[in-house]
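Re: that backbone. Tokens:
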């Protein structure tokens, strides 16, 4: 079910990425090798280095997981709240140029949600094993995510490391994304500004 590969691709929306983003070759290769139905969701982590003025708090990000079988026997419509950590020293050490105005944020599923996610994977695998078909989607939604108004004078550059397996650890996924430029170019960027 290739639609589930959007688990990693849709993370772009968290950091307002455009098609011009700088994805590493390693990132492209590893993403292409990932099987969304067998990847352990408890091991997927995203480490984001960005300016501290960009706020993402617990409860702001949710993963929506949907699957509908063509025969109507399987219907999954789950919402998972993404756990956010700002204290992961291992993730901070991934970035060799962290400055005082930077913040490193790690996104992952809670243990409870990772187990539920795995249950969904098993249901879909069992359904597909019977040569049954269906459609699915996986996406990230944001509530109350905002940028400061006015934006700081300094650059707002984002770098992203991704982990899909604990044994392999993190790998560089995206680098050098200019959030300030993207926000200023977005037609609806005023909707992303924080209200005082």
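Recovered sequence:
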């Amino acid at each position: 079910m290739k639609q589930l590969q959007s688990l990693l691709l849709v993370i772009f929306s968290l950091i307002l990425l455009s098609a011009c983003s700088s994805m590493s070759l390693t990132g492209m290769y590893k993403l292409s090798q990932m099987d969304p139905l067998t990847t352990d969701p408890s091991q997927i982590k995203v480490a984001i280095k960005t300016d501290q003025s960009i706020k993402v708090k617990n409860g702001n990000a949710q993963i929506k997981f949907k699957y509908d079988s063509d025969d109507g026997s399987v219907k999954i419509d789950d919402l998972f709240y993404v756990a956010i950590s700002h204290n992961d020293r291992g993730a901070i050490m991934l970035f060799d140029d962290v400055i005082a105005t930077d913040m490193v944020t790690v996104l992952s599923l809670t243990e409870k949600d990772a187990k539920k996610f795995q249950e969904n994977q098993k249901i879909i695998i069992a359904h597909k094993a019977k040569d049954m078909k269906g459609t699915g989607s996986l996406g990230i939604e944001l509530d109350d995510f905002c940028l400061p108004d006015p934006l700081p004078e300094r650059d707002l550059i984002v770098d992203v490391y991704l982990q899909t397996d604990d044994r392999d650890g993190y790998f560089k996924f995206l680098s050098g994304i200019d959030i300030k430029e993207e926000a200023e170019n977005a037609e609806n960027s005023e909707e992303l500004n924080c209200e005082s």
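Strands lie at 45-51, 61-69, 75-85, 102-109, 134-142, 157-163, 171-178. The CA atoms of residues 117 and 144 lie 25 Å apart.
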